[in-house]
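haha ok so turns out i had the wrong file open the whole time. this is the CORRECT one, sorry everyone. sequence first:
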Amino acid sequence: MATMAAVLSEDNQALLRVIRDAKPKTLTELAMLSGRQVPNLSRTLRMMAGYGLVELKRNVREVEPIALATSFKILID
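then structure:
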């Protein structure tokens, strides 16, 4: 539960919305849009990719982030 809360923090949800809405072509562009540093974004996006929330599409020398999930429903049984 703690891991899920960290992955789906408000900051990370906002980041997913920026990716979905602005469709940045590079991590540098995403950094400018989000106000976060590229190394920080890279770590966060790799973690989110591991959970299937984003795809990191490698173009020649750049990485394009693509949001795969932007809304969440959590069921606890």
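The two ends are 13 Å apart (CA to CA).
again sry for the mixup
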